[in-house]
Amino acid sequence: MSKGQYTIEVPAAVGRQIDRTARKQRRKPSDLVVEAFRHYFANGGIPEETPTPAELRAIRRGEAAIKRGDYISFDELQRREKMARRPRRARAKVS
Fold it and tell me: Can you give the pTM of this predicted structure?
């Protein structure tokens, strides 16, 4: 088997996890990455799940709502949630 050399970038947390695991298992970090890639390719990549009939109905309802314009933006959703979580001020009593 011929070998190639690749340079990849991983998030710092992933790099620390690779290094920590390599030390524990007394292996080279590159060996762990090779094993991970082999596992990934042997299992067909990232697994996909088939949606249930109920999930498909929910997706169709959501798509129909979007076509009707019946939706809000993510920013609006966050704003509404923030408003809902705000403590309410006590009202002044009127005599």
Answer: 0.48
